C-alpha cells in the first residue's frame, strides 16, 4: 500500500467521529431548544415569545458579514445550537409569526421523532 492509502485508513475513524459528534450535538441542542420553549410556555401562537426572551438570540455583526465570518464565532460560541434552531425553523417545528415571535409546534416535534418526556 502506498502512503496515501495508509493516511486514508488512519483518517476514516476521525472523519466518522467528527460527523457523529456533529449529529449528536444537533440532537442535543434540539432538545435543549425545545425545553426552553416549554419552560417559557411558548407552545402556541397566543403564548409565543421573541427569540431574545428564550435566550436564543444569535450574536452577530449585522452590518458586516465579513467581520461576522471572521470574529462572530468568538462571541456566539458553538454554532451547533444555531444550526439546530435553523433546522427546527426549516422543518416548521419552530414557527415564526409575522410579528417576529416564535413558538414550538409540539405536534411537529413529536412527528419528527423527538420526545421531551
How would you characterize this protein structure?
The chain is mainly α. The N and C termini lie far apart (51 Å). The chain is 60% helix and 5% strand. α1 crosses α4. The model has no long low-confidence stretch (mean pLDDT 78). The protein has a two-stranded antiparallel ribbon. It has helices at 3-39, 51-54, 65-76, 80-90, 106-111; strands at residues 94-96, 102-104. The protein is built from five helices and two strands, in the order ααααββα. It has a single domain, classed as Arc Repressor Mutant, subunit A.
Characterize this entry briefly.
The protein is mainly alpha-helical and 117 residues long.
Keyphrases for this structure?
117 residues, 5 helices, Arc Repressor Mutant, subunit A, two-stranded antiparallel sheet
Low-confidence stretches: none
Number of DSSP-assigned strands: 2
Name of the level-1 CATH class: Mainly Alpha
List the secondary-structure elements in sequence, H or E: HHHHEEH
Structural class call reads mainly alpha
Strand order of the largest sheet: 1-2
Q: Could you tell me how far the N terminus lies from the C terminus, measured between alpha carbons in angstroms?
A: 51 Å
Amino acid at each position: 500500500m502506498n502512503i496515501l492509502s495508509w493516511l486514508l485508513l488512519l483518517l476514516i475513524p476521525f472523519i466518522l467521529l467528527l460527523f457523529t459528534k456533529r449529529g449528536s450535538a444537533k440532537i442535543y441542542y434540539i432538545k435543549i431548544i425545545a425545553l426552553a420553549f416549554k419552560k417559557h410556555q411558548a407552545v402556541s401562537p397566543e403564548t409565543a415569545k421573541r427569540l431574545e426572551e428564550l435566550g436564543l438570540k444569535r450574536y452577530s455583526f449585522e452590518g458586516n458579514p465579513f467581520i461576522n465570518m471572521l470574529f462572530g464565532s468568538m462571541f456566539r460560541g458553538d454554532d451547533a445550537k444555531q444550526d439546530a434552531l435553523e433546522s427546527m425553523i426549516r422543518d416548521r417545528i419552530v414557527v415564526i409569526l409575522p410579528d417576529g415571535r416564535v413558538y414550538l409546534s409540539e405536534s411537529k416535534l413529536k412527528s419528527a421523532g423527538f420526545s421531551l418526556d
